[in-house]
Amino acid sequence: MSKPRQILDRIYALQNPGEAESAYDEWAVNYEHDTTQGMGYQAPTNAADRLNRLLPDQPRAEVLDAGCGTGLVGQALAGYGFEAVDGLDLSTAMLDLARDKGVYRSLDKADMTEALPAKDDSYDAVICVGTLTEGHVGPEAIDELVRVARPGAPVVFTVIDSIWEPLGYQSRVRGLADAGRVRLEEVAADSVYHVKENITCNLVVLRAL
How far apart are CA 113 and CA 28, in angstroms? Predict the structure, then answer.
């Protein structure tokens, strides 16, 4: 079995936030090398590009990067000129590396299986890449991403194709739409996620109402 596959199998087998925090603290120093070079991780840049196209010429838009990790999404957004990006993550070691990039307005530790440490209607956009997945954060967290988004704000996130329907992410999104909390703008299936591991994802765009 390849090293990337061994890493993914371990990560997707995590059972609770405590295990996740320990695993990511341990992995932090090698995370970007293992994912971007070892796995061909393109979801952060693809999602950031999608958000940029949703918010053209809005460099001062306040954006929440939920599950920011080492800051790959924030770095990509900074490349588009975004100046007010806040990051949340469970791993202190990951947050330290994100802080070193100098692209975030603020960075805070947070467990995304609980309520986010932000008020209702706080952000002009919310982005979440690689966090809503098996062994990490379940579909109920989508409610929180929507809660902290201002009316009309885009909420962009990724969910691996293989778990989109079986683990309830699809039904959660439909429920939010049916309840009038969001407008579903796009579900781009088979979007590039890990090129070298041949993993694809749903790149989802909601609009908070």
Answer: 20
13-37 CB burial, b ≥16 within 10 A, e <16: ebeeeeebbebbbebbeebbebbbe
Integer Cα distance of 153 and 26 in angstroms? 35
Please write the tens of the pLDDT for every residue from 22-57.
Answer: 989 999 999 999 999 989 999 999 999 999 999 988
Answer whether 160's CB lies under 8 Å from 199's CB.
yes
Structure tokens at 116: 């986010």
129-167 pLDDT, tens digit each = 999 998 889 999 999 999 999 999 999 999 999 999 999
